[in-house]
Amino acid sequence: MIPEDKEKTQRLLGRFSAQPILVVGDLILDHFVWGTVERISPEAPVPVVKVVKESFHLGGAANVAYNLSVLKAQPLLVGMVGRDEAGDQLVEQLEREAISSAGIIRVSDRTTTVKTRIIAQHQQVCRTDRESSAPPSTSVLSQINERYLDFLGQAKGIIVSDYAKGVLSQMLVPEWIREARQNEKFLAVDPKRADFSSYRGASLITPNTKETERASGVEIVDEPSFIQAGQHLLEITKADSVLVTRGEEGMTLFSGQDHTHIPTVAKEVFDVTGAGDTVIASLTLAVTAGASVAEAAVLANHAASVAVGKLGTAAASVEEILASIG
Question: Which residues are catalytic?
Answer without folding.
Answer: 277
